[in-house]
Amino acid sequence: MKQQHELIPMVTGEYLKSLRLERKLSLADVAGAVFLDEKLLGDIEEGNADHIALLYKNGYIQTYARFLEVPADEIPALLDTAEVKESDLHTIFAVPPKRNPAEKWLRASSYVLASLLVGTLAWQFTHEAVRLSQNGSRLQSGGATMPTSEEVKNTSTQQERSGPVNASIAPLGALHAKSKDGMDTAEQAWAALSKPALPDGESLLQLIVSADSWVEITDAGGQELEMDLLRGGSEREYHGQPPFRILFGRASAVRLSIDGESVDLTAFTRDDVAQLSWPQEQHAEVESPDSD
User: Fold this and answer.
1) Is pLDDT of 172 > 70?
2) d(CA 24, CA 259)
3) What is the pLDDT of residues 31-46, one digit of tens each?
4) Which of 89, 99, 181, 205 has the CB geometry, 3.0–4.6 Å to 238, for a possible disulfide?
5) How far apart are CA 276 and CA 285, in angstroms?
């Protein structure tokens, strides 16, 4: 058969097909052995594999020939040596046109004018702010006094009759006037707003957690104020009816305050777990976390 191949040249597909038939193998047998598609091998044998890329086509032929035990020095003669035509290069991005010198000058002039306008507006704003600040200082140094309780009452009555007063018409000196305890009017108003108003009979609990800790808080009415894992860095506030049943999973990382007074958890802590009822009697009883 080899002599016949040398005398009568055969194309690659016919040669591979003849070797397969000599071994009495079907295309399905070869496809299963080399893990290639049966139709693909048939196209190679019939010479209909031009639709396959040359690189992949030669790879399939090499795999097929090795399986049929074609000598290694004869395999290069079976490969398709057709030259691959490289695709023409196309320009994707258009070359930007050259800018006109007049356009560059116009753009630079626009930037300069915009910068001057922004600078002028900034100067006017700063000048106006300084003027208002100076006027406020003069009003404050003119001997502003704190209004008496009777004046405040009359003002409140007048406001109820005439409606709300715009804060912008209040004199700056009155806003910055100092009281006996050293706090000005604005600081007193902020302190009043920041202090929460609690219903009668309720207490305020404040927690600061520096590390992850399990927290359980229940008030006298059985309401669960908290039952969750609080992350480190959390700050929480709760209010409810005392006494409170409290449990902290990592007591060393928890700071507790009730109605503004700090609570020492040392007497109620065992194995870094604190369990207590607050308020309670003067003597502290350490409760086991596993007890009911």
Assistant:
1) no
2) 97
3) 899 998 999 888 999 9
4) 205
5) 8
- Residue 223's pLDDT band, with cuts at 50, 70 and 90, is confident
Q: Residue 94 phi/psi, 5° resolution?
A: -70, 145
Q: Nearest to residue 246, comparing CAs of 205, 217, 204? A: 217
Strands (E), the chain: 203-209, 213-218, 224-230, 234-240, 244-248, 254-258, 261-263, 269-270, 273-278
Cβ neighbour number for residue 205 with a 10 Å cutoff: 22
Better-predicted residue by pLDDT, 271 or 3: 271
8 Å CB contact between 242 and 219: yes
pTM for this predicted structure: 0.33
* pLDDT at site 21: 92
Which contiguous run of DSSP H or E holds residue 217?
strand 213-218
DSSP state for residue 116 in the 8-state scheme: H
* DSSP for residue 230: E
d(CA 150, CA 160): 15
CA nearest 61: which of 16, 2, 10? Answer: 16
* Cβ contact 58:81 at 8 Å: no
Could you give the angle at the alpha carbon of 171 between the alpha carbons of 168 and 172, nearest 5°?
90
Cβ-contact 47, 70 below 8 angstroms: no
Measured distance CA(65)–CA(233) in Å, rounded? 71
Non-local (6+) Cβ contacts of 279 within 8 A are 242, 243, 258
How many Cβ atoms from other residues are within 10 Å of residue 219's Cβ?
19
Tell me 204's DSSP state.
E
